[in-house]
């Protein structure tokens, strides 16, 4: 599949989750969550172990705490955390992963590829693809 086809498949259906979601509107973890909201992509679950609510949505400490199976996962975390998030995502059967610029980890990308899970990485940003507006 081409990268465009992988992106289209990722965006085709939820539920989605955003690992690294933040209540701080200046952080990319918040912008990515708001991008999903602006694009009417629902349900979307913010993942942050330190927050109860982000942008009006209940926040969850990790994927295992989300009340339904997440199909597609955006990751905006430091690379060592990305690796842990990807490991859990693969255990829980997440079908598609988008590692945002700055969150990339070669080990996390390889883990997705080895598991046969489509992974978007290498500079393609959901904010650009979906036309995020501040």
Written description of the protein model:
With about 130 residues, the protein is α/β, with parallel strands linked by helices. The chain has a single domain (about 15-130), classed as NAD(P)-binding Rossmann-like Domain (Rossmann fold, 3-Layer(aba) Sandwich), CATH 3.40.50. The chain has helices spanning about 5-10, 30-40, 80-90, 105-115, 125-130; strands at about 15-20, 45, 55, 55-60, 70-75, 95-100, 120. The strands form two sheets. Strands 2-1-5-6-7 form a five-stranded parallel beta sheet, sandwiched between helices. The chain has a two-stranded antiparallel sheet with strand order 3-4. The longest helix has 13 residues, at about 80-90. It starts with a helix and ends in a 5-residue tail after the last helix.
